[in-house]
Write a structure and sequence with these properties.
The chain is 30% helix and 24% strand. By secondary structure, the chain is of the alpha+beta class. The protein folds into 2 domains: 204 residues, UDP-n-acetylglucosamine1-carboxyvinyl-transferase, Chain (Alpha-beta prism); 202 residues, UDP-n-acetylglucosamine1-carboxyvinyl-transferase, Chain, CATH 3.65.10. It has a 4-stranded mixed beta sheet. A 4-stranded mixed beta sheet has the order 2-14-16-15, with helices on one face. Helix 1 packs parallel to helix 7, helix 4 runs parallel beside helix 6 and helix 6 packs parallel to helix 7. It is globular. The two termini are 23 Å apart.
Length: 425
């Protein structure tokens, strides 16, 4: 498996362009199934998860093509509503295919995505939402089969503003008969991007970005062209890395409105940030100050997807900081690795107490999931000495060649790919 080898201690400097958002692109690619014809998507990041989604769409019979950051998905000859188990296991986000396949074919079968490194990740709200729209759901041997002769709009209230459940229900409801009103919906920017895409295909969706989304069903959707929003988590990761290395960088192709909670935390830590148009400039030339309390919660609160990265910054701060994780129960796996690099962190259930240390030291560490992996890369960039981050396939799921991104900002970070063993035969 590939590793990243980092010689730490160099302040980041320079300018980078942020790629398109994985978490917006995945549901939008799934929603492309709803139009009969070729959908052209721009600013689609080159990531492992995107390749898996393209692979699944192709197995369902779609014609897919990629040229750099442009993807074309033509579902007019799609002929299967069955997502194979091996592909379902490769990526949890394949659950997004339920809503569009149900709306397109009147049936869908998928497999339970199961738990993952960051927590249990149930799908009960996805299923009850589809059931409310008229689907009959059967589960046996890990397979979930959903069928609906007709989907009918209704009122649906989510117990928790789940991003995935909100998106799945929106994608099923766009072709339902009548109006669906979804309350306690997730408000993430990726939900607004999905609404804009669905409307571009001829749907009638309003309210994304608030907690009530109204979907007026239409008879048919049409192919369109669409540009995916920039990735706020990749942008946030770069901002934190600049601050942790006491560097100064400029990001282009960003939307600072999507990063308000992170910018607020960074400013509390004494980091200077300026934003205009699609540019964000960060300057972290002095030691960060501790931040007394950060609580992860659904948007617009502090994102769970930046929790591990900001913990690295606070590990180096002057004073004691507290982070409470409320979204995923298993999201402190990076803590043991950071402690091995010299951080002083204790975890009490869902709360981490971070006593800032003057410096971290290089070590061999393991990425346990996507964002934990990104945090370890930041730690390696800021640390004295050499850090090796193992199991970086997790990082490749969400960052397009992270080593090139940081190398273009002056860091010393290289990928080591093990040589293939010769065939003994
Ligand atoms: C999405 C993001 C992920 C991010 C997360 C929270 C994508 C591809 N992934 O994941 O990067 O970390 O939002 O911002 O967009 N839950 C249930 N039942 C359900 C659904 C969710 O109990 O039916 C729980 C989950 O276990 C979790 C919480 O709700 O504790 C949040 O999950 P959710 O918002 O659904 O996250 P995802 O859509 O999986």
């Amino acid at each position: 498996m590939d590793k990243l080898v980092i010689e730490g201690g160099k302040p980041l400097s320079g300018t980078i362009r942020i790629h398109g958002a994985k978490n917006a692109a995945l549901p939008i690619m799934a929603a492309s199934l709803l139009a009969d014809g070729a959908v052209r998507l721009r600013n689609v990041p080159r990531l492992l998860d995107i390749e898996v989604m393209l692979g699944i769409l192709s197995r369902l019979g779609c014609h897919v093509a990629r040229n750099g950051e442009e993807v074309i998905i033509n579902s007019s000859i799609a002929n299967s509503a069955h997502v194979p188990e091996d592909l379902m296991r490769q990526m949890r986000s394949s659950i997004f295919l339920m809503g569009p396949l149900l709306a397109k074919f009147g049936e869908v079968s998928v497999y339970q995505p199961g738990g993952c490194a960051i927590g249990e990740r149930k799908i009960d709200m996805h299923l009850s939402g589809l059931e409310a729209l008229g689907a009959v759901i059967e589960e046996s041997g890990g397979q979930i089969r959903c069928a609906a002769a007709k989907l009918t709009g209704t009122e649906i209230h989510l117990d928790f503003p789940s991003v995935g459940a909100t998106e799945n229900i929106m994608m099923a409801a766009v072709l339902a008969e009548g109006t669906t009103v979804l309350t306690n919906a997730a408000r993430e920017p990726e939900i607004q991007d999905l609404q804009n895409f669905l409307n571009q295909m001829g749907a009638s969706v309003t309210g994304a970005g608030t907690d009530t989304i109204t979907i007026q069903g239409v008879k048919k959707l049409y192919p369109c062209e669409y540009e995916i929003i920039p990735d706020r988590i990749v942008a946030g990761t770069a901002l934190i890395a600049a601050a942790a290395t006491r560097g100064s960088i400029t990001l282009s192709n960003t939307n600072s409105a999507h990063l308000v909670s992170l910018v607020h935390v960074l400013r509390r830590a004494g980091i200077q940030i300026r934003a205009h148009d699609d540019i964000i400039i960060v300057n972290g030339l002095t030691r960060p100050k501790a931040v007394d309390r950060i609580v992860t919660s659904p948007y617009p609160a502090f994102p769970t997807d930046l929790q591990s990265q900001v913990m690295v910054l606070l590990s180096l701060a002057d004073g004691t900081s507290i982070i409470k994780e409320t979204v995923f129960e298993g999201r402190f796996k990076h803590v043991d690795e950071l402690v091995r690099m010299g951080a002083d962190i204790t975890v009490d259930l869902h709360t981490a107490i971070i006593r800032g240390v003057p410096r971290l030291y290089g070590a061999v560490v393991e990425a346990t999931d996507l964002r934990a992996g990104a945090a370890l890369v930041i730690a390696g960039l800021a640390a004295h000495g050499k850090t090796t981050v193992e199991h970086i396939h997790h990082i490749d799921r969400g960052y397009d060649r992270i080593e090139e991104m940081f190398r273009s900002l002056g860091a010393s970070v290289y990928r080591e790919t093990p040589l293939k063993q010769p065939d003994p035969a």
